[in-house]
Amino acid sequence: MTSEFSSPAPGNNNKENDYKNESFNQSFNSDQITFINYTHSYCVCIIDIVSSTDNTSKIIGSEQIRKYYSIFLNTMASIIKTYNGKVIKNAGDCLIYYFPKTVNSSNLSSFQDVLDCGLAMVEANHVLNSNLDKNRLPPINYRISGNYGKVELAISTNSNNVDLFGPTVNICSKINHLASSNEMVIYKDLHDVLKKTSYYNDYGFIEICDSNDKYCRFPSLIYSVQRINNQNEQVEINEKRKQRFEEMQQNKNNKSNSSFNILLIDDDKDILFTFVTIIESAGYHVTSFSDPLQALTHFSQMDPYHYDLVIMDIRMPGLNGIQLYSKFKVMNPDIKVFILSALDAIDELLSIFPEIKSNDILRKPIEPHALLAKVKIVSRL
């Protein structure tokens, strides 16, 4: 860290010195994993390479081995991102990822993303192996498993890195071997959600069980996911999907200010009152906190996609804005955040969190009409 965060701005010496003395850097100097009292239901998936040990034994040189894994991981991570998924980590020969928007079980399009992501991975096998072949590397086959249910979420105190724990993740791991090469399987919990959707019949779901278990302990609990093979049916399915997407966009465009939810956090109660008054005057729905810890607890107990925008100060006791930003982004990677700051440290903020845009950092003091203008722009996106 440079000294920019602790350099006092004119007229704010006392508060700046308080900020300098708080343990801001501690959150970036520890490798501890901490649970943040956050339990919600998500779709979690695992993609695992089949027989990677045999494959890598045929590769000569560590550089080629790194390239082998890099091509696979980057190809799959790109597909996951396309379908609104988030990679948690790669563990050995597999990637663990989840779909943050499935936290809302009524957001049915997010569950369709889970299916389409897995099937896109399956269909990418030919392109992936063509790329490997060009690099004189052996082909890769893989298995995908998915499940839906409650998970416990934890983050590293020195980064945005997230990890998920609980039976939902464990089941994904246990059923992964039941998938054939280049196949996706899902557990009953996820299948039960999908059965209630309008697009359930747009896919094929085939019951499978463990062929090595003579009692087949998992009958009707695990399903292979397939595309509909009939071309005419697939054209009709694509048209229905396009229509649903257009309806969703229209509903979004018709969204009123009163249905746009804003979370406002500032330990200065006078500023908080002023900002709430300004924003509510335009018809927006505002929830405010002067205590950042209370704000975090509230956010973690809500549907994390309830809020469309967070506006918060950077200098707050107990939990500063940077620490809050990390935790909010773990719970909802898509949340829009405005950071209020009187500090002359924009460049350092951007270096710590490159996903933060410079125009998302609002310099204090900010004029009421300027703040409201920023809110209006976000609400119309």
Your description of this structure?
The chain is α/β, with parallel strands linked by helices and 381 residues long. The chain has 2 domains: 203 residues, Alpha-Beta Plaits; 124 residues, Rossmann fold (3-Layer(aba) Sandwich). The chain contains 14 helices and 13 strands. Strands 1, 2, 3, 4, 5, 6, 7 and 8 form an 8-stranded mixed beta sheet that branches. The chain has a 5-stranded parallel beta sheet with strand order 10-9-11-12-13. The N terminus is likely disordered.
How do the helices and strands line up, and which of them pair or pack?
Blueprint: H1 13-21, H2 26-29, E1 33-49, H3 52-57, H4 62-82, E2 86-91, E3 94-99, H5 108-123, H6 125-134, E4 142-156, E5 162-165, H7 167-175, E6 183-187, H8 188-195, E7 203-208, E8 222-227, H9 231-253, E9 261-265, H10 269-280, E10 285-289, H11 292-301, E11 309-313, H12 321-331, E12 336-341, H13 346-352, E13 361-363, H14 368-379
Parallel strand pairs: 4-6, 9-10, 9-11, 11-12, 12-13
Antiparallel strand pairs: 1-3, 1-4, 2-3, 4-5, 6-8, 7-8
Helix pairs in contact: 4-5, 10-14, 11-12
